[in-house]
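Q: Mind making up any chain with C-alpha cells?
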Amino acid sequence: MSMPEIKCVNIDKCCAAASLAQSIALEEAAISHILNAEGEKIQKALTLELCSMKDLKDLLDVNRSVADMVDKITALEAILESKLDLIIPILDDCHKRPPKSEYEE
C-alpha cells in the first residue's frame, strides 16, 4: 500500500484546512485497522485452549495489552477531535464564499 498524497493546487487557508481534514480521516482509517487487529488478537487468544494457570496468565496479558492500546487510541481520538473542532469553522467559512477562479489574482 503506497502512502496517500494530499494535494492542493492553490495553497490557501481553505486548502490547508481541507488537507488537515483529509489527514484526520486517514488517521481514523489507520485507527480502525489497529482496532480490528486488536480484536483479532483477542479472538486468537480465546481460541487457544486454557489448560493451566499459565494459559490464563497469557490470556490476561493479551487483555492488558489490548486495553493499553485502546487507552492510547482513546487519547489520540481526543486529539483528533480537537484538531477537527479547530478546522471546522474554517471549512464552514470556505463553503459560504464562492470559490476563487484559477484566473483570479
User: Anything to note?
Assistant: The longest helix spans residues 53-96.
